[in-house]
Amino acid sequence: xxxxxKKTSAEISQANCLATDGLLPxxxxxxxxxxxxxxxxxxxxxxxxxxxxxxxDTLYHLGQVYGxxxxxxxxxxxxxxxxxxxxxxxxxxxxxxRTPSPTDTPVLPTDTPVPPTDTLVPPTDTPVPPTDTPVPPTDTPVPPTATP
Length: 148
Description:
- This protein is mostly loops.
- The N and C termini lie far apart (146 Å).
- The protein has helices spanning 9-15, 59-66, 70-76; strands spanning 49-52, 89-92.
- Helix 2 packs across helix 3.
């Protein structure tokens, strides 16, 4: 009987609190349930939309684009592996946190110095002559002009 239910005789004895492995005719025994593998439910939420896989797309990349773990996209599309191919329709959220682009490359800092855009003139100790020289006042009276 143990082979038929895929249990060892020790498991059946333990489940029924039996002191020995021997069974008597007519004895009612409890058989422990056979563990079943509970499938992880898959399928996209109703609000998700179809996206057609482009060259360079990966589930990881799409997860970044849509701001969710790539495993959510994998589960929503009932995929058993993260492998996808060009032209494959996939369910994705109806919003993207950024525009998908298979050629996205991170911007890396460079060691090339960038010259400043505003040029500052350093101060000097050399005096600068004034551009407007004042005209000294004169005490000479100006004669009145005659009007004809």
